[in-house]
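Entry 14. Structure prediction run on the chain below.
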Amino acid sequence: MTPLAPRHSYSFADYLATEEVSKVRHEFYAGEIYAMAGGSPEHAAMAAAITTSLGRQLEGTGCRVYSSDLRVRVLATGLATYPDVTVICGPSIRDPESSTHVSNPKLVVEVLSPGTENYDRSEKLEHYKRIPSLSAVVLVDYRTELVELWSRDDQGWSSARFGTGEQVPLAAIRCVLSVDAVYAAAREA
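Output returned:
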């Protein structure tokens, strides 16, 4: 049997250099650089609807909503990624190794895709839960009108699911998210 070729281990600096010149976005974790899949018009419309809704509700609160252009780094695990929507309350805290990455989101939203759903619901969610400032993770199902909210309180993390006709209570940022409005945006895309 032929031995497997050794895997190359990239540094975070290698990742940053690659990301600065690439036309494709990448995630970074455990010395590996992973290309991110492109999204569909429905995916983009759902993320935009969430960004718009939260942006309106957060005006004047000291919290700000960011699009998927914002880079987030989980300092505890080293994961570097681009959530679909991110909310930061107060000033952003920059990664000590990269001024283009923030490390203090209050809320992140992932619109699930067929190719990333399992990763987003498992490993990536576990990485997010290790961010000290993070109070909520919202997972938006691409197949059915279902939004899953993971929220942290003094007892730890818990989850709840919301469907058609319901409002997702985002207590961490004092906002609500209409499930119907998110999926209406996808139907119109």
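The chain has one domain: 39-188.
Filed with the rest of this week's runs.
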